[in-house]
Design goal:
Rossmann fold; 4 domains; 14 strands
């Protein structure tokens, strides 16, 4: 800390400056830059008649009067800018009811004149800020000295004064003769006195006053917004850290204008530099943690072909062979009866349709829907007859029960237009600006002359954030190319329990984290 000046207090006093320096610095550093707080030098009372002024700024203090015109003009500009900012802060604080702080600021910006202005490395510093006038000593009023009246001497007669005057002269003459005699005796009998050289004055060395180290200034309370900005800057281009700050930092959810502006700035940075990371990370967040436009979406392609009426305990090939045998037996019995023959006993083929595959498929689809987060739209495409699949479109979260009832009413029909079903599902989803999943629940191959693999490849090229997952009932392998084209997976179900488990796994990217609150209204599928 450097001493700027030592000032006598015969004209101005620094009472307010001595008392208000610490609170003044605290107010300024809380609201304004440090350069503004450095405008006011620190006063220190050295004795009753003097105050010393100190500053933390570097450089030698130059009085304003010694500056060049260019230097003084620049110093005036900086001084006026900082005084104006303090005046504005005072008005703001006063409007908030913080009158005491505003009074300190208003008092501080007063200083006597430019003789109290200094330049330290081009920065203005003032002394005797918030000054007061020294009291003027009053001269005591004195009464004029009374003059005694002249004393009147009574006149004497000439006869009485003449003898007295003659006696007085004789004594005076005797005294003069005596003094002359003494002088002669001293001259002849006493040695001449030598002039004694004057003693050299003793110069006492004045020890300099020990410099008292300044009291350490209290650390200003950190600005939480500056700390948040430093945290964002430290994250750099790390999208994961930036997203975590955006989602969880409590300051960004406040109503402070600085928080609103900083949140908007961070959101813009995330959208520009972390777009793909935001899209990929959305599936790992709960609805209240992610933007609505990034919520993933799900479309179920449901196979309602005739084979879904077969038992889940036998393969499709076994079921078709048994069905052909059953048809031949029926035809043989019909011909036998036509020509009067005996009716042959027929085999029992009820096992073909016992525990049909469509039942666990419907239950699995409804279970997935009940677990879907509240901000996810779910669509349905039905694959049941040639030449085309039937698209039901998206069902908003409020229509989940309606969607589940539609699925519960599905019955096996005829054929499997799988390619058209995947195409219609691809037309529903976004797959570019958000993650989209097509969940195919099927037990068979394309049977309407379509090419599901070509459709999947085209969708993969146009929708990079689309994934097709397949629940392959009994492992026919018909949907393998759908998954491989879009980076999805095939989940093989060997029995009814597997269908439910595999469907849940296939929809995992849409269902979100386990700790998220699921929609209670759809906790179980409707009958």
């Amino acid at each position: 800390m450097k001493r700027i000046a030592r000032s006598l207090t015969d004209k101005y006093v620094a009472t307010d400056a001595l008392a208000q320096f610490e609170p003044l610095q605290r107010i300024l550093r809380q609201h304004l830059p440090a350069s503004t707080a450095a405008l006011f030098s620190r006063p220190k009372q050295k004795n009753e008649d003097a105050v010393e002024w100190y500053s933390d700024l570097g450089g030698e203090p130059i009085p304003y009067a010694q500056l060049s015109p260019e230097q003084s003009a620049n110093l005036d500009r900086l001084l006026n800018e900082r005084l104006d900012s303090i005046k504005q802060l005072s008005s703001t604080l006063r409007s908030r009811g913080e009158t005491a702080e505003a009074d300190i600021l208003d008092n501080a910006i007063r200083y006597p004149n430019k003789d109290n202005l200094y330049s330290l490395n081009g920065e203005p510093v003032i002394t005797f800020w918030g000054y007061g006038m020294a009291p003027t000593a009053a001269l005591p009023e004195t009464d004029p000295t009374p003059v005694a009246p002249p004393v009147e001497i009574p006149p004497a007669t000439a006869a009485s004064t003449t003898p007295k005057r003659r006696a007085w002269r004789r004594w005076l003459l005797l005294l003069l003769l005596l003094l002359l005699l003494l002088g002669l005796l001293y001259y002849f009998f006493c040695p001449l006195a030598k002039d004694t050289p004057p003693e050299e004055p003793v110069v006492e060395e004045v020890e300099p006053e020990p410099e008292i180290p300044p009291e350490p200034e209290p650390e200003p309370e950190p600005d939480p917004f500056e700390e948040l900005l430093a945290l964002i800057n430290a994250a750099g281009d790390d999208c994961a850290q930036l997203q975590a700050i955006f989602r969880t930092h409590p300051l960004l959810n406040s109503d402070d204008p600085r928080a609103i502006a900083l949140k908007a700035e961070l959101d813009t940075k995330l959208q520009q530099d972390c777009r793909e990371e935001l899209i990929k990370d959305a599936k790992n967040l709960c609805p209240e943690e992610r933007p609505e436009n990034l919520a993933p979406e799900l479309v179920i392609v449901f196979d309602a072909s005739g084979s879904m009426g077969y038992s889940i305990n036998i393969t499709t090939q076994e079921a078709r062979q048994a069905e052909e045998m059953m048809q031949r037996e029926k035809m043989a019995n019909a011909l036998s009866q036509l020509f009067g023959g005996r009716r042959q006993s027929s085999s029992n083929y009820d096992y073909i349709f016992k525990n049909p595959r469509i039942i666990p498929a419907r239950e699995a689809a409804n279970s997935v829907i009940s677990k879907t987060p509240s901000d996810v739209n779910v669509g349905l495409v039905l694959v049941g007859s040639c030449p085309a699949a039937q698209s039901y479109g998206f069902f908003a979260p409020g229509r989940r029960s309606e969607l589940q009832r539609s699925i519960s009413s599905i019955q096996p029909k005829q054929c499997t237009p799988l390619a058209d079903g995947v195409l219609k599902a691809g037309q529903l989803v976004d797959g570019v600006n958000k993650e989209s999943t097509i969940l195919v629940v099927s037990d068979g191959e394309e049977s309407c002359e379509g090419n599901p693999c070509a459709v999947a490849n085209a969708l993969a090229r146009s929708k990079p954030n689309l994934t097709i997952n397949v629940v392959d009932i009994l492992g026919t392998g018909a949907g393998n190319c759908l998954a491989s084209a879009t980076g999805g997976k095939v989940y093989t179900a060997k029995n009814a329990d597997d269908v439910l488990k595999m469907a849940t796994e296939a929809a995992r990217d849409v269902l979100g984290p386990e700790h998220c609150i699921k929609p209670e209204a759809n906790a179980s599928p409707p009958p």
